[in-house]
Amino acid sequence: MAIDERTVQASDGSTVTVVRFRSGQVHFDLHDGATDPPSNGTTLGANAQSVVSAAERPILLAAFNGGFKVTTGSGGFEVNGHDLTPLLPGMATMAINASGAAAIGVWGTAGFPAPTQQIVSARQNLPPLVQNGQASPNISDVTAWGAMLGPGPAVARSSLGEDANGDLLYAASMSAIPADLASALIGAGAVVAMELDINPYWVQLDAAAVPGGTLAAEIPGQQRPADQYLVGWTRDFVTVLAGGVPPMAPG
Q1: How far apart are CA 60 and CA 247, in angstroms?
Q2: Per residue in 23-79, pLDDT tens?
Q3: What is the C-alpha to C-alpha distance for residues 36 and 145, in angstroms, rounded to an integer?
Q4: For the whole prediction, is pTM greater than 0.90?
Q5: Do the bridges between strand 82-85 and strand 77-79 make them parallel or antiparallel, or are there none, so unpaired?
Q6: Taking Cα atoms as reference points, which of 192, 153, 200 lies closest to residue 173?
Q7: What are the Cα distances from residue 142, in Å, to 58, 138, 151, 176, 222?
Q8: Which SS3 state, helix, strand or coil, does residue 181 take?
């Protein structure tokens, strides 16, 4: 099974949804948003536009939100070999190679990425939420994890991790603190993870039961419609596509 899902309870009694994308059964594309990150006139491939491409639709299994706006200084953005915002050392990073295999790591540390990994797309967002299977030392400082809409500290939050098998794990809730995401990811086996976007308008995961099937909203209470990425979106996102590719070469 290419995708599986579990639900765990957050500290305030709400739920965190954790979805696993299995390495060797899926591959990924990073998409630029219509307005953010700004493309600055760069011509991007069809698989990197602000809408799911025609070639992706028949094999689309899921799509999920990216990270903060680039103006926050939370990290860089590279898509199909084009550096739209400089990548920064020490930032948690989703990296994708030319085959569509993906990995999570801390840019510029512990040999990530290695030259053999041939990274073509990368999305950074803040220092790691989880590293070496442990929550960040700053996990309790909610101000370190983005500006919150509303009183906080429990707001809509999303994250992305990787387990020891190379599977990616997306975890999100419409009411969570950073520690809730870290706990849910570690409980699902994540050894490294990054926070993605936060606040209600941006947190979104849509998935289909079969490749190319009808997408359904997966995070209870998410505000955007399940076809948002099919019609186009202002912010960056990631598509999860059926079809296994070789795992990214180790660093």
Answers
A1: 19
A2: 999 999 999 999 999 998 899 999 999 999 999 999 999 999 999 999 999 999 999
A3: 19
A4: yes
A5: antiparallel
A6: 200
A7: 40, 8, 12, 11, 21
A8: helix
